[in-house]
Specification:
By secondary structure, the protein is of the alpha/beta class. Helix content is 39%, strand content 21%. α3 packs parallel to α4. The longest helix is centred in the last third of the chain and has 27 residues. InterPro entries: Rossmann-like_a/b/a_fold, UspA.
């Protein structure tokens, strides 16, 4: 690895005995190997000889014999057990399997995932399209929000892009429509709106360029980094962009607000959680 960045040293995968168990484990072991990480497989539920045989059989089919894997079994409520394990085991990355277009995600995902993204002290990767055979990651989209943790999210996204061999990293700056302060009524107001859009885009691109300039050069020089300004509602617009651009991974900052108002007015990340456009990596340092 050309740089000292190594954000994901210990990975936790919370698994259920569902039809997608095998493909999720195969994908997770592959990710852990690329990240040179220790992998902990956690099942919240009763341990039986039959279940142990199933998971051992799946692990035996993986191609990464040198990967350190630990299997743990705990009973209790999934949210509490996962949160406690992340804290005690000093987990850097929590991986959960997810469904893409559902009103309510199954098992660990849904309301539990929303709670975990707020409370866990680590990053979270939601997988909606795991594969038994590796599908190369080609394009990663990361948010360029004007927020304190955005430089870290972009740096980690660059690390992931390099590690997985992605060819392209797009930093998307979402600009709120309300920043325009003008209603289009005629040609004159339309020209004014277009001028304001260009100014806002220039402002955001200038800010992001400063972040790019501080990225590790040994990684930045090996990944094609692009910027894209889009106007719209936070969360909806970047999710739509990632879907239209056929991104293989979307990287977002973890939500920082956990107060009452944030529960009443959903965070932009929660809009994405309700309709995942692709695999989602939520960065928390």
């Amino acid at each position: 690895m050309p740089t000292q960045i190594h954000p994901f040293k210990t990975i936790l995968f919370g698994f259920a005995f569902s039809p997608s168990l095998k493909v999720n484990v195969l994908e997770t072991t592959r990710i852990a190997t690329f990240f040179n990480a220790k992998l902990i497989l956690l099942h919240v539920g009763e341990k039986t000889d039959g279940k142990q045989d199933i998971i051992n059989g799946i692990i035996a089919e993986t191609k990464y014999n040198d990967l350190p894997i630990e299997i743990t079994w705990q009973e209790g409520k999934p949210y509490n057990v996962i949160l406690d394990t992340c804290n005690k085991q000093h987990i850097d990355l929590l991986i959960l399997g997810a469904l893409q277009h559902e009103n309510m995600f199954q098992y660990y995902v849904g309301s539990i995932a929303r709670k975990l993204t707020r409370k866990v002290n680590c990053s979270v990767l939601l997988l909606i399209k795991p594969s038994a055979v590796r599908v190369p990651c080609k394009h990663i989209v990361v948010n360029g929000l004007d927020a304190p943790d955005t430089p870290v999210a972009i740096t980690y996204a660059l690390y992931v892009a390099f590690t997985l061999g992605a060819q392209k990293l797009t930093i998307v700056e979402e600009i709120k429509q309300k920043e325009l302060h003008v209603t289009v009524q005629d040609d004159r107001s339309l020209k004014k709106v277009n001028l304001m859009k260009e100014r806002l885009k220039h402002r955001e691109e200038s800010r992001v360029r400063k972040i790019i300039a501080d990225l590790p050069s040994d990684l930045a020089n090996k990944v094609n980094i692009k910027t894209q300004s889009i106007f719209g509602r936070e969360g909806y617009s970047i999710g739509h962009y990632a879907e239209v651009a056929r991104a293989d991974l979307l990287v977002m900052n973890a939500p920082t607000k956990i107060g009452l108002l944030d529960r009443i007015f959903p965070h932009d990340l929660e809009h994405i959680l309700s309709d995942l456009p692709t695999d989602l990596l939520i960065i928390r340092r």
